[in-house]
Specification:
Elements (H helix, E strand, L loop, with lengths): L11 E5 L11 H10 L3 E8 L5 E3 L33 H5 L24 H15 L5 E6 L13 H15 L5 E5 L2 H10 L5 E5 L5 H8 L5 E4 L6 H9 L3 E2 L7 H10 L3 E4 L2 H10 L1
Parallel strand pairs: 1-2, 1-9, 2-4, 4-5, 5-6, 6-7, 7-8
Antiparallel strand pairs: 2-3
Length: about 280
């Protein structure tokens, strides 16, 4: 059987949280619109609810800047972590609107009623819409949102966390087009043990040397995902020497896109996939 490669074109367009600059992040409207724009990969974050549902969300709590509570009331910023998704059943989470608050950081973002969907719901909706559009299948880059200090507080231990996500990916039938990414090296180690065929990506946002990150991880991942200001010719050479691909995040200005493409990155993660797609078309 021939497996679909994780990456198909270069440079790839990765829609960050769908298309956060255009529609509410990590919501069905954002993912479906990014798909319609023509992204190669949908980047999304997952957390776990009290009833062990895999929920698409960046924070493991209801962000006061994004969401209302289940009764439609604003959430006090100082209390948002009390709305711990790991301690809330999905039935409650589902009733919270996370799409109607204006985002000053993203003035182009359209406010629409939206909720935090389940991962399986997103995968199935995207696959269905892909067929309707008669376009090439999209890839998925799923970020495991975990850290050692938050184990058993905001999420399960890495092995259980990864197990739950893998179950949904298998249920949707998209394993061959899915990668797991994380800042948490423990999560990637757990994923490698449970699904050695899965492409894995290490996310980086600090100035720790490249070789030290790999030494701590203990293996060579398929993908290196640095915060975009960290990318220079030296880092590119180090990544290429290990036969890895590099997809920096989160790149929203055309000038930065131009610089990174000139360096030869394999893809770009952006809140504005429309900007990147338009730039690539002009090229």
């Amino acid at each position: 059987m021939i497996k679909t490669p994780y990456f198909t074109n270069s440079p790839e367009v990765h829609g960050h949280r769908g298309c956060r600059g255009l529609l509410p992040e990590n919501t069905l409207p954002a993912f479906l619109h990014a798909l319609e724009l023509g992204v190669d990969t949908l980047e999304l974050d997952v957390v776990i609810s009290a009833d062990e549902q895999v929920v698409v969300s960046h924070e493991p709590w209801l962000s006061a800047a994004l969401c209302l509570d289940a009764d439609g009331r604003p959430i006090e910023p100082t209390r948002e972590r009390a709305f711990n998704l790991f301690q809330l059943p999905y039935d409650y989470i589902r009733r919270c609107d996370c799409g109607m608050q204006q985002q000053l950081r993203f003035p182009e973002q359209q406010q629409v009623p939206a909720y935090k969907p389940l991962l399986l719901e997103v995968l199935r909706a995207v696959e269905k819409r892909t067929q309707e559009l008669d376009r090439a299948p999209v890839h998925y880059s799923i970020e495991v949102k975990s850290s050692a200090r938050e184990d058993t507080v905001f999420h399960p231990a890495p092995s259980r966390f990864v197990e739950l996500i893998l179950g949904e990916v298998h249920a949707a039938g998209v394993v061959a087009r899915t990668a797991f990414i994380s800042f948490d090296k423990r999560a990637l180690q757990a994923a490698r043990q449970q699904a050695p065929e899965l492409p894995l990506g290490l996310l980086v946002e600090d100035a720790e040397p490249f070789h030290q990150h790999l030494q701590e991880l203990g293996f060579i991942p398929a993908l290196y995902g640095p915060e975009f200001p960290l990318v220079d010719a030296k880092l590119m050479a180090e990544v290429r020497a290990h036969d890895m691909r590099i997809v920096p995040w989160t790149v929203n200005e055309v000038a930065d896109m131009r610089r990174l493409l000139a360096l030869g990155v394999d893809g770009i993660t952006t809140d504005y996939p429309d900007r990147l797609l338009n730039f690539l078309q002009r090229l």
